[in-house]
Specification:
four-stranded antiparallel sheet; 11 strands; globular
Length: 598
C-alpha cells in the first residue's frame, strides 16, 4: 500500500481554501499566535492584557465559526453573512473592553461560561431548525475526530521541531533559550492546529444526513472502555448512597463532583453510540442507554441534597450557582429522555449553551445572584456578635472584593466606593494586579471596621523594594551576579575561584561558597526586620507593596580577598500571625551579588 504524501502545491491550495471559506477565523488565529509569542517574554501588566486578548480571540474564533457555518447551511447571501460576522466581531470586541479578569475573579467565570457556550454553538449552528439527527451526529463526529487528529499532528510536529532545536543547540552551541520553544509551541498550537482543524470542517451538510458510516474504533472505545468505566463509577455512587440512607447523614461535597463526572461521561458515551444503539447485535449498548437515565434518578436526588447542604450553610457563590443549574438541568434531561419518544440529542448542546449564556449577564446570572446572596449573608453577619459569625465576616469580605470589586460593599458605608475603586486601579500603574486587589481588601476591612481572620493574617503577603528604586549602584565593585527567585543553586567562576550560591530552605538563608570558604546571608532576619518596620508604621507604600531603606535590603560579608555584598531588589514575604513561628515564614527574593577583589 502506497502512502501518498501531499505536495507543497496541494498544501498551499488547501490553505487558500481555508482562507477563502473562513477569512476572519484565520486572521483571528494569526493574531492569537502573535499575541501568544509576545506574552512568553513580557512585563506582568502587558502579559495580563495579552492573556485577555487571547481569551477574546478564542471567543471570536468560535462565534465567527458558528456564524459562518449557520450562513453556509442556510445559504445566506454574502451581505447577510458579513452583517452577522461584523455583529459577532463587535460583540467580542465589546466584551474585551468590558471584562477585567485581572481585577475581578467573576470575569474569569464569565469568560469560561462564554467560551463554553460558544463552543457548544459550533456543535449545532448548521442544524438550527433543519437537518436530521443522523446528520447532526455525523457532523459532530467529524468535528470530534478532527480535533483529535489536529492535536495529534500538532503534537508530533512540535515534538519533531523541538528535538531538532535541541540537536542544533547541542551540536553547534547556539544556546537556544526556553522562550524559543514556547514560541514554537504557540505557532503550532494556535496557528497550525487551528487552521488544520478548520480545513477539515464538513461543508456538505445535506450529505451528512445520508451518511450511515460509523468508525469501528469509536465503537470499541465506547463499548469496552467508556461504558465499563461508567458502570464501575455507578456502583461506587450507589453503594455510597446506600451508606447515606443507612447512617442517615447528609452527603459530602465531593459527591457532587463525582455525580457530575459520571453524568458527563455517561451522556458522552450515549452520544457516541447514538446511531448504533438500535441496530442488531448491539444489545449491551441498547441496555446501557436505557439503564443510564433510570439510574440517574437516585443520583440526581443525591446531587440535589449535596447542593442544598452547601447553599444552606454558606449561601450561593458562582461555583454553587453553576452546580445548582447543572443539577436542575440533569433532572430535566433525565425526565425528558425517560418520557420522550423522540429523544432529540440536539437538546443537550442547545440547552446547555442557553443556560451558560443566561448565567453570564443579567439579574438571573450567576454573578448577580451570588453577589446578592453574599451581601445578604454579610449583612446578617455584621448584625450578629456570635463568635463564629464574627470569624466568617472576613471570608465573605474577601470573596466579595475579589470576585465583584469594592463597590459591592456600598450598602455598608457612605464612602463613594465606585470613585475610590477607580482611583485605586489607576493611581499606581507599577503595581501588579494582585497588589491592587490586596489594597482593596485592606480598604474594605478598614471601612467596615472588621478584623482580618487569624488564618488570613498568617498568610498576608507583602512585597518590599528599595526606596531608591531597583536600579543597583555597583560603584566600587568588580562583578555583578544576578540572583533570581526560581534558582536554588548556581555557580560562577571569577578568575580561578569558583563562587557557588545555594538557597538553604531549611535554615532560611543563602550560602555563598567562595572556594573552600562559606558565608551565610541571613535572609530570615532581613524578612523579619522588614515586616517589623511595616508593623511599626515606618514604611511608605500601600496595599501589598512597601519601600525600605537600601541598607535594610543589603548584607555585606568578607571572605578571603573578596568582599561579597547581597543586594535585594524585591522581597516577597508573609506577615505571620503572633502564634506562628518566624521560622515558618514564607519568602522569596530577587537581587544581585556584588563582588569586590581586594
Amino acid at each position: 500500500m502506497k502512502i501518498k504524501i501531499p505536495s507543497i502545491s496541494t498544501l498551499w491550495s488547501g490553505f487558500l481554501k481555508v482562507i477563502l471559506r473562513f477569512p476572519l477565523q484565520v486572521l483571528v488565529a494569526i493574531s492569537a499566535t502573535i499575541a501568544w509569542c509576545i506574552v512568553v517574554d513580557t512585563s506582568k501588566r502587558t502579559e495580563e492584557e495579552l492573556i485577555l486578548f487571547l481569551c477574546t480571540c478564542n471567543l471570536a474564533l468560535t462565534v465567527l465559526l458558528a456564524i459562518d457555518l449557520y450562513a453556509e447551511s442556510n445559504k445566506l447571501s454574502v451581505a447577510k453573512q458579513w452583517a452577522f460576522r461584523l455583529t459577532g466581531l463587535f460583540i467580542c470586541a465589546g466584551l474585551h473592553f468590558i471584562l477585567k479578569p485581572a481585577f475581578y475573579l467573576a470575569d474569569v467565570y464569565r469568560i469560561a461560561l462564554l467560551a463554553f457556550a460558544s463552543h457548544l454553538l459550533v456543535a449545532y449552528a448548521p442544524f438550527i431548525n433543519k437537518g436530521s439527527a443522523n446528520g447532526f451526529w455525523q457532523y459532530n463526529k467529524t468535528l470530534f475526530l478532527r480535533i483529535l487528529t489536529s492535536a495529534l499532528y500538532a503534537g508530533v510536529l512540535f515534538a519533531g521541531l523541538a528535538i531538532a532545536l535541541v540537536a542544533i543547540d547541542g551540536l553547534f552551541n547556539v544556546n537556544i533559550k526556553w522562550e524559543v520553544y514556547m514560541r514554537l509551541f504557540a505557532v503550532v498550537a494556535a496557528g497550525f492546529m487551528t487552521i488544520f482543524f478548520l480545513a477539515g470542517i464538513p461543508s456538505d451538510f445535506e450529505g451528512l444526513d445520508k451518511d450511515e458510516s460509523y468508525p469501528k474504533g469509536l465503537k470499541i472505545f465506547t463499548q469496552y472502555v467508556l461504558i465499563p468505566l461508567m458502570t464501575i463509577y455507578l456502583l461506587i455512587l450507589l453503594v455510597y448512597e446506600a451508606k447515606i440512607i443507612i447512617n442517615w447523614e447528609l452527603p459530602k461535597g465531593l459527591v457532587s463532583t463525582l455525580i457530575l463526572g459520571y453524568a458527563v461521561f455517561g451522556i458522552l458515551s450515549l452520544l457516541l453510540i447514538q446511531p448504533i444503539k438500535e441496530k442488531e447485535g448491539n444489545g449491551w449498548i441498547k441496555l446501557f442507554s436505557k439503564f443510564f437515565y433510570v439510574m440517574m434518578i437516585p443520583l440526581v436526588v443525591l446531587l440535589l441534597l449535596a447542593v442544598w447542604k452547601r447553599v444552606d450553610s454558606y449561601g450561593i457563590t458562582e461555583s454553587r450557582y453553576i452546580l445548582v443549574i447543572l443539577a436542575i438541568w440533569l433532572t430535566l434531561i433525565t425526565v425528558y429522555f425517560l418520557l420522550s419518544r423522540k429523544q432529540n440529542i440536539k437538546i443537550i448542546p442547545v440547552s446547555l449553551s442557553i443556560l451558560a449564556i443566561l448565567s453570564t449577564y443579567g439579574p438571573q446570572s450567576a454573578f448577580s445572584v451570588s453577589r446578592f446572596s453574599q451581601v445578604k449573608r454579610l449583612n446578617n453577619l455584621m448584625k450578629s456578635n456570635g463568635e463564629e459569625d464574627v470569624k466568617q465576616r472576613s471570608a465573605v469580605i474577601d470573596y466579595l472584593v475579589d470576585r465583584h470589586g469594592l463597590t459591592t460593599l456600598q450598602p455598608f458605608t457612605n464612602v463613594n466606593l465606585r470613585e475610590l475603586e477607580h482611583e485605586m486601579e489607576l493611581k499606581d500603574t507599577s503595581q501588579y494586579r494582585y497588589a491592587i486587589k490586596r489594597d482593596k481588601i485592606d480598604t474594605a476591612y478598614s471601612l467596615l471596621k472588621v478584623k482580618r481572620a487569624e488564618y488570613a493574617a498568617s498568610f498576608d503577603y507583602k512585597q518590599f523594594e528599595p526606596e531608591n528604586g531597583t536600579l543597583t549602584d555597583i560603584k566600587g565593585y568588580d562583578y555583578l551576579i544576578p540572583i533570581e527567585s526560581y534558582k536554588d543553586k548556581f555557580s560562577q567562576k571569577i578568575g580561578n575561584v569558583e563562587l557557588r550560591v545555594e538557597r538553604d530552605k531549611q535554615n532560611k538563608n543563602t550560602k555563598v561558597n567562595v572556594g573552600d570558604a562559606v558565608v551565610d546571608f541571613d535572609m530570615l532576619k532581613m524578612s523579619v526586620e522588614a515586616t517589623n518596620l511595616l508593623k511599626a508604621g515606618k514604611l511608605k507604600g500601600s496595599g501589598g507593596k512597601f519601600y525600605l531603606p537600601a541598607e535594610v535590603l543589603s548584607i555585606v560579608h568578607k571572605v578571603g580577598n573578596m568582599e561579597v555584598k547581597l543586594v535585594v531588589t524585591s522581597l516577597n514575604t508573609t506577615i505571620n500571625a503572633d502564634r506562628k513561628k518566624e521560622s515558618d515564614r514564607w519568602f522569596n527574593y530577587n537581587g544581585y551579588l556584588l563582588v569586590r577583589i581586594k
